[in-house]
UniProtKB/TrEMBL annotation:
Organism expressing this protein natively: Arthrobacter ginsengisoli
PANTHER family linked: CARBOHYDRATE TRANSPORT ATP-BINDING PROTEIN MG119-RELATED (PTHR43790), GUANOSINE IMPORT ATP-BINDING PROTEIN NUPO (PTHR43790:SF4)
Residues of the ABC transporter domain: 3-239, 255-499
InterPro entries per record: AAA+_ATPase (IPR003593), ABC_carbohydrate_import_ATPase (IPR050107), ABC_transporter-like_ATP-bd (IPR003439), ABC_transporter-like_CS (IPR017871), P-loop_NTPase (IPR027417)
Stretches the record annotates as Disordered: 503-567
Compositionally biased region (Low complexity): 531-552
Top-level taxonomy: Bacteria, Bacillati, Actinomycetota, Actinomycetes, Micrococcales
Pfam family, one: ABC_tran
Organism domain of life: Bacteria
Identification of the protein by name: Simple sugar transport system ATP-binding protein
GO molecular function, one term: ATP binding
UniProt KW keywords: ATP-binding, Nucleotide-binding, Sugar transport, Transport
Length: 567
């Protein structure tokens, strides 16, 4: 089935989310829509799926115009969509979820699931999904839940499958399996619209790439294009995709977490007995699929969690039990994972947001009075230092783009003397150019001698920044490994496998399909840096002769296992 979007425009008031977009998806093609968060990709797909009505333009199937009044019309026309956040009912079985919206009943009005079970088994066998129709969704791993979403579309005879940021919640192994599934679907004639901002995956699986920037198509490319070219098209200027980072020079360990447990209101241990330390002058990156305790861990450190046991010390001082303001005043800089909810007050000016944690301190306040001149002077300095794109610090922070909002949060937290810096999802929703800048600032803080903790679900970012990598799974610390540890080892650890087992398993399995059919990119083209392409990693000090590091459960800071991450 041939699909064509012709002149699609979607306006929300004065905001133009899609601006006369033309896209053609040929039968049996994997067509990628590449662009940064906020570029308009998901809006375009919501128009295609009938969730939004286009302001202008038309949709054609096999050269015939169609109009969708809702998702039901799109599905009837052969279009299926797997949303980034799954649309599944956790307490229902696979078969019940698949049947939702197209239920059939037996005599007497009872739900008939036999035909649905049969179709699920057929599709599962055809593509090797290994999905049990009677399994409860809440008992299935995330990667299997995604397969259920794909089955839902295929049961309804989808000829075109839309995958919206499908790897956002997957481990590297799950990602590899998904890309294989996409190739299988293509071989059976299904067309796929693949929405992503991850260059490595796009290059690995796409037949053609359409790049969208600020709601407009800015060009098309083949998967043979370099990541540097694709990144430049996404951002509109040349960017560097590698981080020039000297090896860490860790000093004494000044931040320690011991036997930390965080208990949710439900009674679940969302953080379960975690212990680790961070030295001055090193970056510890926490890796893991979203929802494995990272948020609760960082909130416990900041003083936002109520039911917490254990110990959190900074320079020997106990932080546990202190207020958020006391923790910040102790020298902790904190970048939350959701800048709009926890990092900024959108209606306040940029200048006011830059002093949110120091509004009552000199030089911005004297007694009960603030000094507007000092506040604006500080804003002018920080805006210039952090390259915040705005004509004035007096503008509301909510008017800034996502990347510039993140720069404001980072500027506020990094513009005072720190004894610990924590950044959770530091570049989420940020364009490639801003990522480059923010990564450099994080490394500069490390080099200033500050202990740094980064929490990221982007494995490329973890590999790029980390001096050591801690992996969380279901609230527990699976292990801490050196920088340069292989991606497949980290992926196995993110699924709960111990470091020793992950190293052994990765060493024994060289038959797994590569992520890309293309030759490995050079360091200049590889956004993750050479460590992503180096399975063993190279310990600092003897890059030519040192063998792959062993798999320690915990690697002490300051040891020789800190990886040489120079490019």
């Amino acid at each position: 089935m041939k699909l064509e979007l012709k002149g699609i425009t979607k306006r929300f008031g004065s905001l133009v989310a899609n601006d006369h977009i033309d896209v053609v998806v040929e039968p049996g093609q994997i067509h990628c829509l590449l662009g940064e968060n906020g570029a308009g990709k998901s809006t375009l797909m919501n128009v295609l799926y009938g969730l939004y009505e286009p302001t202008e333009g038309e949709i054609l199937i096999d050269d015939k115009p169609v109009r969708f009044r809702g998702p039901g019309d799109a599905m009837a026309a052969g279009i299926g969509m797997v949303h980034q956040h799954f649309m599944l009912v956790p307490v229902f079985t696979v078969a019940e979820n698949v049947a939702l919206g197209a239920e059939t009943t037996k005599t007497g009005g009872f739900l008939d699931l036999e035909d649905t079970r049969r179709k699920i088994r057929e599709i599962s066998d055809r593509y090797g999904f290994d999905v049990d129709p009677d399994a409860l969704i809440e008992d299935l791993p995330v990667g299997v839940q995604q397969r259920v979403e794909i089955i839902k579309a295929l049961v309804r005879d989808a000829k075109v499958l839309i995958l919206d940021e499908p790897t956002a919640v997957l481990t590297p192994q799950d990602t590899d399996e998904l890309l294989d599934i996409m190739r299988q679907l293509k071989s059976h004639g299904t067309s796929i619209v693949f929405i992503s901002h991850k260059l490595r995956e796009v290059k690995a699986v796409s037949d053609t790439i359409t790049v969208i920037r600020r709601g407009k198509v800015v060009g098309t490319a083949s998967p043979g294009a370099s990541t540097t070219e694709l990144a430049s098209m996404m951002v509109g200027r040349a960017v560097s995709l590698t981080l020039d980072k000297a090896p860490a020079q860790p000093q004494e360990t000044t931040f320690e977490v011991k036997d930390l447990t965080v208990i949710a209101p439900s009674g679940q241990h969302v953080v379960d007995g975690i212990s680790f330390g961070i030295a001055r002058g090193e970056i510890l990156a926490l890796a893991g699929v979203q929802g494995n305790g990272q948020t609760e861990l960082t909130e416990a450190i900041l003083g936002l969690q109520e039911r917490v046991h254990g110990s959190i010390t900074l320079d020997g001082d106990e932080l546990l039990g202190r207020s958020v303001k006391d923790v910040l005043n102790a020298g902790v800089g904190f970048v939350p994972e959701d800048r709009s909810l926890d990092g900024l007050i959108g209606t306040f000016s940029i200048a006011e947001n830059l002093i949110l944690d120091r509004y009552d301190q000199a030089p911005f306040a004297k007694g009960i009075s603030m000094s507007p001149a000092k506040v604006l002077e500080n804003a002018k300095t920080r805006i210039e230092e952090f390259d915040v794109r705005t004509p004035s610090g007096s503008l509301a922070a909510g008017t800034l783009s996502g990347g510039n909002q993140q720069k404001v949060v980072m500027a506020r937290e990094l513009s005072r003397p720190l004894r610990l810096f924590i950044a959770s999802q530091p570049t989420r929703g940020v364009d490639v150019g801003s990522i480059e800048f923010l990564h450099k600032r994080i490394v500069a803080e490390r080099d200033h001698g500050t202990p740094v903790m980064i929490v990221s679900t982007e494995l490329d970012e973890v590999i790029e920044l980390a001096d050591r990598i801690a992996v969380l799974y279901k609230g527990r610390l699976v292990g801490i490994v050196p920088a340069g540890t292989a991606r497949d080892v980290l992926g196995l650890m993110m699924a709960g496998v111990s470091p020793d087992e992950a190293h052994a398993d990765a060493a024994g399995k060289h038959t797994a399909p590569p992520l890309s059919d293309n030759p490995a990119p050079s360091a200049a083209e590889n956004p993750a840096g050479s460590a992503a392409e180096n399975p063993a990693g190279t310990p600092a000090g003897n890059p030519a002769t040192n063998p792959a590091p062993a798999a320690p459960s915990v690697q002490e800071p300051g040891s020789s296992a800190v990886g040489d991450h120079n490019e």
